[in-house]
Specification:
It is a single chain. By secondary structure, this protein is of the alpha+beta class. The chain has two domains: 146 residues, Jelly Rolls; 99 residues, Arc Repressor Mutant, subunit A (Orthogonal Bundle), CATH 1.10.10. It is 38% helix and 21% strand. The protein contains nine helices and ten strands. Helix 1 runs antiparallel to helix 2. The longest helix is centred in the middle third of the chain and has 15 residues.
Length: 261
């Protein structure tokens, strides 16, 4: 992670573990810019202090006090003011469905105010309490209780869960047609259900999983060529092009830079 940034991680309560991967508190001691590499989870952020914005070219858009971001297949560039802090909820695959009736794919490559999902007045009260709390542990307890109160009786979808499991098992190197066959469902209804629950098409989710797996396990490879072959890229020019689209950098430039979180 960039110098001057601290990330503290916390587990959700047992009742929320099926839906939430983890909570994170991200603190920036100094003004810095960080690239958020795409991942397979949706996230919600609540400001604790300071300001944070998203950079697009030379334009900086300030992030509101509460924001929800869908899956994306391109890097987001975030600017953190000095002495800023944000609390992040990283949802599990399909976990957002336990709190929101909005089909997850409608948020793909988008960020919206959390007030579009949760009552704005209640979010404002939560935000003020989180800002006033003395410790991160106290902030986590406040957030955890808020989410427990918003938990909906949304049944799990075993078929979609199994699809995600297969994609991860194959490191993202699997065709949608083969997934649908393994799950005994025709491809069109499978893709529709997957998008609504997970937040992207199964093909896009597999692509994100493929690159993330390479990034997360890069240290175990003897060379970049070996890493690309293991990820199923046998054409180096195609690999470099797809990696650059995903991270905004060539593979050599990405792995020689300080790791993004």
């Amino acid at each position: 992670m960039p110098s001057g940034m601290t990330i503290s991680r916390f587990s959700p309560s047992i009742s929320l573990m099926p839906f939430i991967r983890e909570y994170m508190v991200i603190e920036a001691e100094q003004e810095l810019i960080n690239s958020l590499v795409p991942d397979t989870f949706m996230a919600m952020a609540i400001r604790i202090k300071g300001t944070t914005g998203v950079l697009s070219g030379n334009d900086l858009t300030q992030i509101p006090s509460g924001i929800i971001s869908g899956l994306s297949d391109t890097t987001r560039t975030v600017s953190y003011a000095a002495n800023s802090a944000n609390l992040i909820i990283a949802f599990k695959d399909g976990g957002m469905a336990a709190f929101s009736p909005v089909p997850a794919h409608e948020l793909f490559a988008k960020s919206i105010s959390a007030g579009n999902i949760f009552p704005p007045a209640e979010l404002q009260i939560l935000s003020e309490k989180i800002q006033d709390a003395i410790t991160h542990e106290a902030r986590i307890q406040l957030l955890d209780q808020f989410l427990l109160n918003k938990l909906k009786a949304t049944p799990s979808d075993p078929m979609i869960n199994r699809a995600v499991e297969l994609i991860r098992k194959h490191k993202g190197i699997i065709r949608v047609k083969d997934l649908a066959t393994a799950l005994h469902i025709s491809q069109d209804p499978f893709e529709k259900k997957f998008r609504a629950r997970i937040g992207s098409s199964p093909k896009k989710f597999a692509s994100i999983t493929r690159i993330r797996n390479l990034i997360n396990n890069y240290a175990s490879y003897t060379s970049l060529t070996d890493a690309s072959y293991d990820a199923g890229f046998y054409d180096q020019s195609h690999f470099i092009k797809e990696f650059r689209q995903f991270t905004g950098k060539s593979p050599s430039a990405f792995f020689s830079a300080p790791p993004a979180w």
